[in-house]
Amino acid sequence: MSSVLPSRSQAPETAGEYRPISSHLAITPPVSVVIPAMNEAENLPYVFKTLPAWIHEVVLVDGNSTDDTVAVARDLWPGVKVVRQQGRGKGDALTTGFEAATGDIIVMVDADGSADGNEIVSYVSALVSGADFAKGSRFANGGGTDDMTFIRKLGNWALCTAVNRKFGARYTDLCYGYNAFWRHCLDKIELDCTGFEVETLMNIRVVKAGLKVQEIPSHEYLRIHGTSNLRAVRDGLRVLKVILKERSNRRELRRQDRRSPMLGPVRGEVR
């Protein structure tokens, strides 16, 4: 599913099968970038400017914007696939985008200008090297953030610690929206939430599904224009609710495992 860049002697026969993503790596799997956006017309130029040219497709999920979000996206990336969101919330938008994406690899990127598209190569490299899920982390060595208050950092740390202890993960970050994964992951994790807690739900369920996760150091920049819909207390409580619910579900699975010797324990691996 992946390969290093072919040599000059091989290039004439295989060049059409590979898309270079760096001087040392080329890939065959198509990559889709999913961007949920609502009234982000001013930020999209910064987002699209850093997207690599080798991306297979960009899927913009428009949350019923009242500004020129869609027109700006089409002007910046003429082949962009625009999908109108029928529901509400970031979780619903991402689910809509994942369903519309056609790539074997899916990258999720926020539309506020806080993510650097140049980092996508690191995510894709991790996936083609063997990971199922490449999880961005602002607190892994080499990562950083310009957009978190002390209280939000403390809350993220507490929630991350709870997930690590309850589910056997080794995450350094939990509530971050810059991630990438193979399409097959969607067959193993059900996304049944609508809000900002979607990243936490994904992080928990990939571990419960036993998928191989690799953290990618990422730097989060300040939102360039506008204000975020994130509310620290409200959304923090929603994240906590997800953790407690998933923990409860895990206990029920363990009871089923004890009753049925045909079922193995649920394990996850985080590197």
From TrEMBL:
InterPro entries: Glyco_trans_2-like, Glycosyltransferase_2, Nucleotide-diphossugar_trans. It comes from the Bacteria. The keyword Translocase does not apply. Keywords: Transferase. Pfam families: Glycos_transf_2. GO terms for molecular function: transferase activity. Residues 32-154 form the Glycosyltransferase 2-like domain. CDD domains: DPM_DPG-synthase_like. PANTHER family: RFBJ PROTEIN, UNDECAPRENYL-PHOSPHATE 4-DEOXY-4-FORMAMIDO-L-ARABINOSE TRANSFERASE-RELATED. Belongs to the glycosyltransferase 2 family. This is Glycosyl transferase.
